[in-house]
## 1
Amino acid sequence: MSLLVTERLEVVNILRKSINTSYKGLRGWNVSKAICSMSRKQELIKNYEDAVKECKNNNVLLLAVSKLKPASDIKILYDHGVRHFGENYVQELIEKSQLLPRDIQWHFTGGLQTNKCKDLAKIPNIAMVETIDSVKKAKKLNEARRTYNADEPPIACNIQINASNEEQKSGLTDAEEIFALVEFFLKPDTKNIVLNGLMTIGSWDVSHSAGTENQDFTKLVEWKELLDEKYGLDLKLSMGMTADYKQAIKQGSSEVRLGTTIFGNRPSRADAFV
Ligand SMILES: *Cc1c(COP(=O)(O)O)cnc(C)c1O
């Protein structure tokens, strides 16, 4: 009997799970496999469709943040027509990109380290890096893309802004640094990456105080207006996650990044598997 890719991935996952949880024996194996994959499929598609309804009228891109979730989940949504997926860990992204179809548009949404820029640039179908926060990293990414994947499209990039000014959060706050980074993108020899927009992660407190305007999103919109005016751009805004995406859409988001809403709670990194 030949299995579809989704089914094969499902089998691998169930096997791994059964090893992890020392599941005893494989009695009823085919039945439980079929039931598992059917209900998971229905669940994922329903979650995705519910979220996409919130985005449709406003023309917002819904990024399915699949970090720490198995490739079989991604394949289910891929078969449903979804192409934009977000990942936070470079190694996990590399593995998934090798396992899954080539026309997926991967977004990197994790904290970016200079020494990982090369590995990201090597992934042919990486579409976007959302967390650029220094000229140094932008330079590295551009150079590596030129070296390893010059024939692939340039990588779209978002500049990460720390709108809430929280110390533990990455992203830029300083105007001069932000200007310098935008200007790097606009240089004629920056050809292998392109500036797409701005990204922020709303602070937990602000995102959980219902009913009011989200100050972090207001701040990001102000940055957009300032930079659009100064450089003649029309920057996109990547803002809004599970806790705050409806508010982000109200405030003009162009892309919301949804993990939990679509895939449910994430396992710990130690328990996750591709
Ligand atoms: C994990 C993550 C998300 C998705 O978070 P949820 O709250 O599960 O929707 C979005 N953006 C970034 C940068 C993330 O790290």
## 2
Amino acid sequence: MDHPYVILPEEQAPHGIEHCEICELSKQRNRVIWGEGNPKAPLMMILDNPGAREDREGNSFLCGTRETLQFGMREAGIDVNDIYVTYLLKRRPMHAYNKPEARAACLPHLQLQLIQKQPLVLFGFGNVVAESLFPDEENASVKELRGSWHEFQGMPISFTYHPLAVRRRPNLLRFFIEDLKALKMKWQEIQHVRT
Ligand code: SF4
């Protein structure tokens, strides 16, 4: 049987950012992953940081996060060609690091992506993304923010649980799919208004 999930094509970081060394994560054995999927997609999904994309031999690899994300999308009727996935941190942390500093250092990269790509809807996964995008909001957590729409940099955004949390706690799967269905509805509403 064919593997039901796909490895999304990676988008290279813009010239000058591919070797970014602004924060301490550049000293760990990792590389900048700017994003993956359709760079012109209407839906931009934001995860905390990239998982492994290659195994030890350098072969492309589908991590659990990507697999669960695609499972949820399929259940919600979202096509992989309609999404672009990016990260709060563009490098995969390999060891302990100063989290607030790295998140603050990397945020301008995400802000640049939003300016350049102008997606129609944003969707964040997990508490780290929620807290980092809404630092002034008390209790900015998935539990508080999911199920309704907010605004980030002038774009609608909502949240759901991190795919790894869903893998660990299967009782979250139903909420995960529900939230992804709400994302699809929001996108359809915006498309409807614009046509
Ligand atoms: S995590 Fe972000 S800010 Fe830090 S070195 Fe990588 S690209 Fe630069």
